[in-house]
Design goal:
Radius of gyration: 30 Å
Strand order of the largest sheet: 4-7-10-1-11
CATH topology of the largest domain: Rossmann fold
Number of domains: 3
Structural class: alpha/beta
Shape: elongated
CATH architecture of the largest domain: 3-Layer(aba) Sandwich
CATH superfamily of the largest domain: P-loop containing nucleotide triphosphate hydrolases
Number of helices: 22
Largest sheet: 5 strands, parallel
Number of strands: 16
Strand content: 5-15%
Distance between the termini: 76 Å
Helix content: 40-55%
Amino acid sequence: MERPGTLGALKASGYRSRSVKDELRDALIRRLRAGEELFPGIIGYEDTVVPQIVNAVLSRHHFILLGLRGQAKSRILRGLTSLLDEHLPILAGSEVNDDPLRPISRQGRQLVEEHGDDAPIDWVDRDRRYVEKLATPDVTIADIIGDLDPIRAARGGHLLSDELTIHFGLLPRANRGIFAINELPDLSGKIQVALFNVMQEGDVQIKGFPVRLPLDVLLVFSANPEDYTARGKIITPLKDRIGSEVMTHYPRQVDAGVSITEQEAWLDRGLAVRRPLFVSELIERVAFAAREDKRVDQRSGVSQRMPITVLENAISNAERRSLSSDNGAATVRLSDIYAALPSITGKIELEYEGELQGADQVARDLIARACAETFDEYFEEEDAEPVIRYFDEGGALKVSETAQDDLLLQGFSRVTGLLEIVAASPLVDDTSTDAERVAACELVLEGLHAKRRISRTEGGGYVRRRSRRRPGHGSMGPGFDGPSFDEPLV
């Protein structure tokens, strides 16, 4: 259908203006009635965050998302554009998306006065109606609201007090759309004053000249909860004008975290890469463990980007091993997760105790804890008694990261009961490859090591558990003594 190109044709089409809040509300009502997904790609918020956002939109509120880093706040805000009309008519050349039926700028009003129904119309798509700004201390009133432009005044022969000399900032340019500010507390106080003045009264002052700007805009914000509630970071009148405060959170179930990671990670590699069932769950449990560890700064949070980058790095290490040995296909093993340590250490901020131990040790401990939890998910510890007894009786095993799968499987077959406990688990079946069986065997051994039933050397060897230190002084917490090895590795 051809869209009207003039004001007269637009009127003849029966077009009626709506505020952007009504536009969002109407679209949301249609989706709710149709049972459609409201925010595609947003996982884990179905019963918590999304209903609160729906209430805010239905209430025509400006709102703020409060949450730690990596909780999809910006993604949710950008997803609001899907509720906007696909195309919106504006007066041609308008800097502030003037409504052809009710222009707010001096330029728009003059255009209608001069051309009447022949005033030209442009159409903007929904993506151009979303404006986002990251708040930093150096943001100025000119950036957000606008400034007087002496050059424009000179060229047009206008007084500096004339509205036609204004170079509009981001907020006026977001008129009839959505204006988002990330990290709101970092805005200076005077800009926060300008924001709430526009939100409530619709007027501002630019270089001392009062300008009436009855903007039609939905203001949405994001912030860290600690910064938002700290005195002096947010001025009280601005907080009072934000209609809804929505708290985001990290995934509360491992399955939800796995789904997010699988959705966001780069998994489509040129080589065929297999990932055993437990790998994604184990990586997600590393993030869950970090969010509970007292050595990790919980005020900073552990971003959901951490398991995403760990999975990508683990896959890359499996690729590297496959390319080096010319195997053709790569299978992610537990050793590949340890190889992804740089993706963990760069994503966590440590408390004093963690700094003393070092990021590398904390990351290894987090992987060990995740191994223990994943082991409990698929195995019973009492079923592994033959494996533990093998090492207690002096057996030892060396696992090389670069060894071929068939050779590793031969080595694992020497450990009493290891292949049997793996075969009885849901991790393998008759169609499983040697590489997948090897990965499951590694999980058993790492799980027993994490549960302090056997010990592992730094070189990848597994031996019996022995202690030479007083209990409670190990890096894994109370009861971990630090391994000592006398047996030769075979």
